[in-house]
Amino acid sequence: QLQLVQSGGGSVQAGGSLRLSCVAIGLIDRLNCMGWFRQAPEKERERVATISDDKSSTYWPDSLKGRFAISRDYAKNTVYLQMNSLKPEDSGSYYCAADYRSCRLWIVLDPTNWGQGTQVTVSS
């Protein structure tokens, strides 16, 4: 069994920064993809970024790459999301996700494991 425990998040003014963390606990052997999703009120959940076991990362949309940075500490089984130059539209619930399968599957399938979620609020 795999458990994902998130930390970080909170409230910040526009232009500020926040860092989210997510540690994987349990069956971490052969854990492949880790990443972040977010959901704004009354909107569908959307992928934000993923990072594979081979350290390759992807952002949705690609323009987020200039403000957000996903990283992974393989020794600590932890994935991070550094968010800079935050905008009010970045507000929402952020969820860590992990999978033993390839990140590419997240295009059509949901991840198999989810964190508890954390709130990010960006005020203008």
Polypeptide structure, described:
The chain is mainly beta and 124 residues long. The chain has strands spanning 2-8, 10-13, 18-26, 33-39, 46-51, 57-59, 68-73, 78-83, 92-99, 113-114, 118-123. The strands form two sheets. Strands 2, 4, 5, 6, 9, 10 and 11 form a seven-stranded mixed sheet that branches. A four-stranded antiparallel sheet has the order 1-3-8-7, with no helix packed on it. The mean pLDDT is 94. The chain is globular and about 40 Å long. The protein is built from no helices and eleven strands. Helices cover 0% and strands 52% of the residues.
Quick structural summary:
It contains no helices and eleven strands.
Instruction: Sketch the topology as an H/E string, one letter per element.
Output: EEEEEEEEEEE
Helix content: under 10%
Gyration radius, to the nearest Å? 14 Å
Overall pLDDT score: 94
Number of helices: 0
Give the low-confidence spans.
none
Largest sheet: 7 strands, mixed
Secondary structure topology:
Elements: E1 2-8, E2 10-13, E3 18-26, E4 33-39, E5 46-51, E6 57-59, E7 68-73, E8 78-83, E9 92-99, E10 113-114, E11 118-123
Parallel strand pairs: 2-11
Antiparallel strand pairs: 1-3, 3-8, 4-5, 4-9, 5-6, 7-8, 9-10, 9-11
Offer a few descriptive terms.
11 strands; 124 residues; globular; seven-stranded mixed sheet; single chain
